[in-house]
Amino acid sequence: MDAREALLSVEKIIREHGDSKALGSYFLEFGRRLEVLRLVERWCARGASVVDLGAQPFIASCALKAMGYDVTAVDVEPEPYMPIAERCGVKVVKRDLERERLDIRGADCAVFTEVIEHLHYYVPHVLSEINKSLKPGGYLILTTPNIASLFRRLRLILGKQPIYRYHVREYTMPEVLAMLEEARFKPVEFYYSAVNDLTYVNAKPEDYKRLRGYADLLKLAIKKPTKLNLLRAAAYPLVKLIPSLRMLIVAISQKYSEPAPTATERWG
Question: Is the residue at 79 inside a domain?
Fold first, then answer.
């Protein structure tokens, strides 16, 4: 089953075992999750062990399982959506990533999407624990909002808080890459994705699945000319032209195969 088929197959499970919040997330974030699943498909061999971090409501975890991966889902509060994980056959580990050790070893890949912006002051600890969970040469697929995106900049110019109200902190691309390097990850691919600029719109549930390009966004803006849809349609050519103005940071990195250097004290 490919990434799109797998994600589509999860809808029924979310409808049967989830709630309105999970179902709303399924549609609104369909495009972003599909991009992440395709990255896993590209970088992680079928059948590989994948750790999905900050996983609830387990939409991506279920899709990865349907794609043939051996999935371990990790979340600080998995209980509300455990019926979804159980229905998909996904193994769940309850962990507070900021305050506890992950205690997972030998994974081939880790998925860490839309989580780092929710962390407080323990980001180095979390990235270090993710590094320990992976085999040498294992891959980490990370996404996070871009604080330097066009709409974040416009909000700041207008005197409004640019950071989304449920986020603790948002980052620039150089900050993300620096944190990964410090945690002994080697960035192998990183880019600004336009998927959220295309799909974070006012639409009917089924319309989110059909937003694949600018023509679809224009049709939606004409069909449903809300303020958000018109702004997205007007801004999309600019963010396509200038990648650093896009809403989403994507970074794929690889755990260094060699051990970390031993720290030594130096005396003057």
Answer: yes
